[in-house]
Amino acid sequence: MKAGKPFIGQDSAWEEWLAAISSERMHHAWLLTGAKGLGKRAFARAAAGELVREPGGKLPDADAHPDIHILEHLPSNDDEAKKKAEGKPYQTKRNITIDQIRQMQQRLTTRPTLGERRAIIINPADDLEKSAVNALLKSLEEPPVGTYFLLVAHQPGRLLPTVRSRCRILRFAPLTPEELDAVIRRDVPQANAEERQAAILASHGSPGVALNFVEQDLGNIHQLMMRILREGDADFHLRGALAEEMGARPLRERQLAALELARAVLANELSTGPRDRQLRIIDAHGTLTRLSTQAPTYNFDAGLLIMEIGGLLASAAMPREAAR
């Protein structure tokens, strides 16, 4: 980790952001793009803190600073809001709503509270309601002086071209094995060397996947996923084993972690095998991506979900003759 950088990895993106802050003509809207789990959320918070930091002052807490406004998925109802307030896992709404955008825009009618700059983080921007995107576009077209937007996007193609064209793109790259190891050591210090190595190999550069791998104990699930990809699963035996390993009543966090692991496994397979297999991998990955966006808010049956994951992996399995 470089001195002064409050997170691990993404050195080039951070240097680009710092250079922009110190320039005389900083762009007013930034699109943070890259695969889910690369640390865009942590980067956006640190970047916003650096933007509003007082000269000589400490990096502020983005969640508590009056000039940093964060728009994310709200709890789905009052009961879920209580869970959030208590620090418990909670279900969220499917989208970031137009009401959230309008509330943010009302704040933009006043000057920043403490300094000359204000940051608006939207995470993820690709989950904005259609009407919310149209409302946001007005602010991007005529931004108030001193206001800067940080739009996190896992799938920037889902945003309107008119939104993308008004943003400067900041791309996020997979972390190196050394950086991943540092992330795991920092966040899961109890993980041993074998667990860290397995997580690094399975994550393919994603710190989010690596941490989930260790925290949710996904080693056996990863092995079964790889077997399905290598051998297929014509008799559903491996899918049954996958469901058994997942458990009858897994926590939602474990289900989400398994989804992200399956996506990482498929992404790593894209460069192998014949063209028809690559197309099957792309189709399966697209379906997993859709499921991963729905799973936080939908009440999927855990058993059916893991069987669906196994079926998608089986659909992208190596041809038998190649597997031999």
From TrEMBL:
Any Gene Ontology biological process: DNA-templated DNA replication
Pfam families, sorted: DNA_pol3_delta2
Coiled-coil residue spans: none
Gene3D superfamilies per record: P-loop containing nucleotide triphosphate hydrolases
Protein name: DNA polymerase III subunit delta
Organism the protein comes from: Novosphingobium pentaromativorans US6-1
